[in-house]
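Memo to structure team: turn this sequence into structure tokens by end of day. - J.P.
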Amino acid sequence: MKRRLFWKILIGFWLTFIIITQGIWLMFTLLRPDQDVSYMRAFARVSVAAASSAIQQGGPGALAEEQKAWPQDWRARVQVQPVASPMNRRAPIASQTVSAPDGASYRVSYYPQRGSRNHGIFGIPMEVVIVVVVGGLGFSAILAWYLTQPIQRMQAGFGDLAQGNFATRLGPAMGRRRDEIADLAHDFDKMAVRLEELVAARDRLLADVSHELRTPLARLNLAIGLAKQDPSKMATSLDRINGEAAKLDEMVGELLTLAKLESGQSRGEDYFDFAEIVKAVVQDARFEAAAKRVDVLLAIEPDDENVEWITRGSGRLVARAIENIVRNAVRYSSEGGKVNAVLRRDGDRFNLKVTDEGPGIPEEAMAGLFMPFGMSADGFGFGLGLAIAQRAMAVHGGSISARNLQPKGLEMAVTLPAAGEHG
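Reply from structure team:
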């Protein structure tokens, strides 16, 4: 596994750290004198004087006996050499020439301890170098782990999602973390939830379409079988076949319309009069309602010719959506009942309410009212009409809602923005 992030962090940390530490060290070297220099020189002179006194009294042997009581560090710094011997390459802090009782001359010198703070890498003490190395490695490793651990979890999550496991969630794995990586994990969860919903809706739609298509196909096969068994009923069978084929064609057309609405391809950019569309739909519905002796009433508020009802989009789609709503109201109204349609303009929005005096919708079916082939627990089905109406309004920036009335009836409310109020 490549750890490019780790090495980038490590190199960047080291470059920054070296620049800072060298700058600090240079500042201390140039601006702050060594407070220990004067003390060391004084101690060196005292040490050289003590060693010289011992040599003058008894020679190097006396100094050796005396040094046995000295600390090991002190003994290593004081060196005694014959005057004739070559000088040490290192410069002593203090030095003195002295003669022993036997007349031999010796040079007594005090040298700084080897490996002292004046030695190291670039003049930095070795202890500081070790701490910097260990600290840098530790910092880089922890930071790389902190950043790469959630990234690796996300990588695994995307892999699971690609394999079709839409139940994958990354939010719980982030714990109490609050940063951009945690936000990305929560966005991943939102995406996974949406994908799960879309796939479930697709599978449900395919299952519902298969179920709905099976019924007219079964009727077609039955009509064909009857025609083969009894040629005298050929005309009746052909009429039934024609009717079922028309139903199949209508259902396929509705499915295509729904698919286009889902992808946002069906909205046009034409301007149309919403009030005129509502009037036309109500006028057509009255012919169908006459057979059930149902009155379809329309009220427009304000009823003023100077009020504009212009909006933008696809007038055909909006008309189809309103037609589905009004026809459903007529279909489920009891004989001799009424369907009331009220169109109002509230500022920059058009509000249409269609109420009927039918049995209403079972409460358990409300959640699936605008879903394709929505079905309640008691088998109450809705087909595709309301699903198409809901999506048609949505692509135009509007909405549809429904609620049961008391003691009976259903109210469908449609809102649509005026021209220029939706993009």
